[in-house]
Each structure stands twice: as structure tokens, then as C-alpha cells.
Design goal:
332 residues; alpha/beta; seven-stranded parallel sheet; 12 strands; 33% helix; globular; binds guanosine-5'-triphosphate; chaperone
Amino acid sequence: MSDVQMDRRIPVSVLTGFLGAGKTTLLNYILTANHGQKIAVIVNEFGEVGIDNQLVVGADEEIFEMNNGCICCTVRSDLIRILGDLADAKFGKGNRKVDFDRVVIETTGLADPAPVAQTFFVDQEIAENFKLDAIVTVVDAKHADQHLDEGHEAQEQVAFADVLLLNKTDLVSEEDLQKLEHRLRSMNSAAKLYRTQQSEINLQHILGINAFDLHQKLEIDPGFLEEEDHDHDDDVTSIFFRETNPLDLNKVERFINEWLVEHGADTFRYKGVLNIKGVKRRVVFQGIHMLFSSYPDREWKSGEAPASEFVVIGRNLDEAWFRQQFANCVAS
Ligand SMILES: Nc1nc2c(ncn2[C@@H]2O[C@H](COP(=O)(O)OP(=O)(O)OP(=O)(O)O)[C@@H](O)[C@H]2O)c(=O)[nH]1
């Protein structure tokens, strides 16, 4: 029997990409696509409370959330524990047996993918049960230059990618796309690069591709397999907001207008759901810097207490200003 036939390890795909690039959009696309596979999903978010669980489509996949820290540092032990539980469930060692074909991990936009990938090589039990299939990095064509200029996380995500999805091609010119492709290629010539809109990609290009090559990664980062601390940009913080009283739509609009004018440059990413007075549906609202969007989503479910919950991630955020403005949005 060949090595490939002997390999019972569970394939793992890691989705990375800077804040707002389109990772959740890609995850939803994967979960709703007709591929006949059962996928266990691990979602890691920056911020105290997960918002993505509200934005990931309802599917019967196993979804595990890891909050309160970044997957590449403080919650790596959580990742090891969840993967251990998953392996037990799949191979029938624990109390419950869950069958699934692969694992997809969505990292926070601020995660450095190298330590996440490292987990699959340095932890022996994980290495025996899982096989890192590929690191898929989603790139926001509109904001990539800015993110690559400003922070090393975005650079690491590109450098470590096995597949680069140049997403949001609808928002920039052909000329800018070509310049960006050139920049990405100069940072990582080995990765496959595809242009996408709404992260739509033939799944055969990203799942089960057996693309992660340890030797190549060691060339980029010779210390890849050594445990080491790494730095994050400490100025980047998140603020979580929650309010159960309904909000006044006009006041919310005024708040957001003022926010984008005064603080748009500092807010990398914001997303959540709003409970607006007189509106039966929850309103999803999200954005990246000045690019803001909102739309009515599903109706609040019976038994679900309507609440506004959202997270703002940015640099040098004026938390007092945000809290005051948000408090002013409650309907009288
Ligand atoms: N115009 C345009 N918008 C897109 C495209 N793909 C995704 N978006 C939008 O970009 C926003 C961010 O997408 P997400 O999938 O939530 O991004 P993310 O990388 O998961 O964001 P974080 O988890 O916060 O880092 C959403 O409003 C998407 O609808 C695209 O191809 N074109």
C-alpha cells in the first residue's frame, strides 16, 4: 500500500487574510457549496465575544469558537485541545463519535499564520492525527497596499500562503490589480494566485490540494519549528458593544457618519448585528475603514432576545468617544 493510501490523517485548511479581506465570506461559500463533505470548523476571533458565529451561515457542521485571544498566541493551547477532541471524536476514542472529512480553521485577521501552522508539526499527537493541507490567504484588493505597508501580520499572511485569493476585484481597476499581483508575487512566488469576487473559488483549488510544503516554509522562516514569542502591533485593540434596548435608526446613522469622518482611518474592521426600533429583522452592519455596509438580515428568532452586538477593531481607538456615542443611539 502506498504512503498516500496509508495516510489516515485529517486534512486541515487554514484560512487567513487581513481584517475584512473575505475569510468569513469564503467560509460561508465553502459550507454552502455542494461538495458532499462534512467539515468541522474552528473560528478564532479578536475580541472578547465572537461575532462571526452570528455571521457564519447555519450549517450542520461542527463549529468551535475560540475567542479571548489570538489563535497564534494565547489561545494556541485551545487550538490543541479542540483538535485533540476532534481527533478523539473522529477516531472514536472519546464518548461521542463524530464523523467529518476535514477541518477548516478561520484565523483572526491579526493572526500570524506561522505559529498556527507550527502546531501541526511540533505537537506530536496533532501531527499524528492531522495534516496541514494548505494555508489559504484572502487578500482585500482594495486595502491590501495599505495593510501591507502598515503591518507585519499582513506580510506574514502573504508570505506563508500556499494559495492567494486576490478578492474584491470588483473594487479596483485592472491596472491596480496587476500592480498588486506583482507585489504579491514578489513577496511569495510559490503560491498559486487566483482573482476572486465574494471569495468565490472552485473548491478544488483550495481544499485537498496537499500544498503545504514544510521545506519551503523553512526557507522563508528557518526558525519556523522553534517555539518563539512574536510581537503584535500593541496599538491595535478591540471594543465590544452590547445593548439590549432597541436603537433609533436616525441616531445610529448620525453616529456612523460622524465615526467614519472622524475615526474611519483608525477603524480597520467593525461588524455586528443591530436591534433597531420598529425593525423586525436584525440588521447586519459591517465595514472596513470607510467602506461601510448594512442590510436587514433574518428576523429575530422566537426565544432569542434581540440585542445589538458589535465589535470595532482598530488602532488608537478612542473608547470613551465610541461608548458615549453608542449610548446616545438608544431609542427613547
Ligand atoms: N465589494 C466586495 N465586497 C466583498 C467581497 N468579498 C467580501 N466582501 C465584503 O467584505 C466584507 C468583509 O468580508 P468578511 O468575509 O466578513 O471578511 P473577513 O476577512 O472574514 O473579516 P474579519 O473576520 O473581520 O477579519 C463583507 O461586507 C463582505 O460582504 C468582494 O469580492 N467584493
